């Protein structure tokens, strides 16, 4: 009868290359490297030529952590556990597994649906690792691969949005250098900007002006909105960042836009924002809604409410409001 290998009998000598580890654990090479750097899941040795070498012990840890994550455990919780504790966790979780037949009835993946949160987190980890190692080619590859896994709206909401927040926070805390942020931003700008042109336009689509107000130089949030609304039958009129209020209003009038979308990111306390928002609202027709989003929007919550502007809580909320507006069912404007 087969017996469980004891902890002390697991070989700890480093001898396996990373691709063999990937094959044995079911993890990608990118993810293994990302988990090493971010969560210190394993600490591989190095060969004379600086190649990573893993032991059987490392492989067993990675395999068990993958299973624990699939069962719903958080990586940050299981990463510090000993091998014995990991086995106990996996054994405990296995007692509550649902049979494969039942799972098949309950869960039917769809391309239009977001990935499970653990899968999105893995994608974000791999993208962050490529940024930290300045691997621009791999970063671009991962972006393209991610877009194949799920729909554009789901990808933007579950991967790109959290990725931007993580990069910004890591840079603020000094975990990433400014060079890392600039590299990621440059490639994301190209990637997201190109998504606006995937749709075929007839010329009859309602138009929405998308930009950032004066002083707001970070445009990735605005680019995300431009890519997103094109999926829902809108024609984005994208002005780039740092656009004065009177120019936004003039563009909306001349293009016949039915809405305006602004992104506020950094600096959140820019003293020009209240003036720009007030001027824009006064220069636009009252039936043209102004949507204000981005990480700094909450900083101006009272002003936004006082001016009658709209601040959707998520990209899904923005899509819902725009769909209502497009179908003439929108109630956001008095």
CATH topology of the largest domain: Rossmann fold
What is the CATH class name of the largest domain?
Alpha Beta
Q: Fraction of residues in helices?
A: 40-55%
Instruction: Give the CA-CA distance, first to last residue.
Output: 76 Å
Class based on secondary structure composition and strand pairing? alpha/beta
Order of helices and strands: HHEEHHHHHHHHEHEHEHEHH
- Uncertain stretches: 99-113
Largest sheet: 4 strands, parallel
CATH architectural designation of the largest domain: 3-Layer(aba) Sandwich
Strand percentage lies at 5-15%
Number of helices: 15
Number of strands: 6
What general outline do the C-alpha atoms trace?
Answer: elongated
The CATH superfamily label of the largest domain reads: Cobalamin-binding domain
Count of all domains: 3
Features:
elongated, Multidrug-efflux Transporter Regulator, Chain: A, Domain 2, alpha/beta, 4-stranded parallel beta sheet, Methyltransferase, Methionine Synthase (B12-binding Domains), Chain A, domain 1, 54% helix, 334 residues
Describe what you observe in this structure.
It is a single chain. Helix content is 54%, strand content 7%. It has 334 residues and is of the alpha/beta class. The protein has 3 domains: 11-91, Multidrug-efflux Transporter Regulator, Chain: A, Domain 2, CATH 1.10.1660.10; 117-195, Methionine synthase domain (Methyltransferase, Methionine Synthase (B12-binding Domains), Chain A, domain 1, Orthogonal Bundle); 207-326, Rossmann fold, CATH 3.40.50. It has a 4-stranded parallel beta sheet, with helices on both faces. The model is unreliable at 99-113 (pLDDT under 50).
């Amino acid at each position: 009868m087969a017996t469980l290998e004891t902890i002390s009998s697991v070989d700890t000598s480093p001898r396996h290359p990373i691709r063999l580890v990937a094959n044995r654990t079911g993890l990608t090479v990118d993810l293994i490297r990302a988990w090493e750097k971010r969560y210190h899941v394993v600490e591989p040795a190095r060969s004379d030529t600086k190649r990573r070498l893993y032991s059987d012990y490392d492989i067993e840890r990675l395999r068990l952590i993958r299973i624990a994550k699939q069962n719903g455990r958080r990586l940050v919780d299981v990463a510090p556990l000993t091998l014995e504790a990991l086995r106990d966790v996996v054994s405990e979780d296995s007692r509550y597994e649902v049979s494969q037949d039942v799972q098949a009835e309950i869960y039917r993946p769809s391309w239009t649906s977001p990935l499970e949160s653990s899968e999105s987190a893995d994608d974000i980890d791999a993208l962050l690792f490529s940024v930290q190692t300045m691997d621009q080619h791999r970063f671009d590859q991962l972006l393209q691969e991610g877009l194949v896994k799920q729909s554009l709206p789901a990808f933007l909401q579950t991967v790109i949005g959290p990725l931007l927040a993580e990069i910004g926070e890591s840079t603020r805390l000094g975990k990433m250098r400014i060079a890392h942020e600039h590299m990621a931003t440059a490639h994301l700008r190209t990637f997201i900007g190109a998504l606006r042109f995937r749709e075929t336009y007839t010329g009859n689509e309602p138009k929405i002006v998308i930009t950032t107000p004066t002083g707001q130089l970070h445009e990735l949030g605005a680019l995300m909105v431009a890519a997103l609304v094109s999926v829902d039958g809108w024609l984005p009129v994208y002005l780039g960042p740092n656009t004065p209020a009177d120019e936004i209003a003039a563009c909306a009038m001349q293009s016949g836009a039915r809405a305006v979308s602004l992104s506020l990111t950094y600096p959140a306390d820019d003293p020009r924002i209240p003036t720009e928002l007030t001027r824009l609202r006064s220069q636009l027709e009252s039936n043209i809604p102004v949507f204000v989003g981005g990480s700094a929007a909450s900083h101006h919550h009272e002003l936004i409410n006082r001016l009658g502007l709209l601040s959707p809580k998520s990209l899904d909320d923005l899509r819902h409001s725009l769909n209502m507006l497009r179908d003439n069912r929108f109630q956001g404007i008095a």
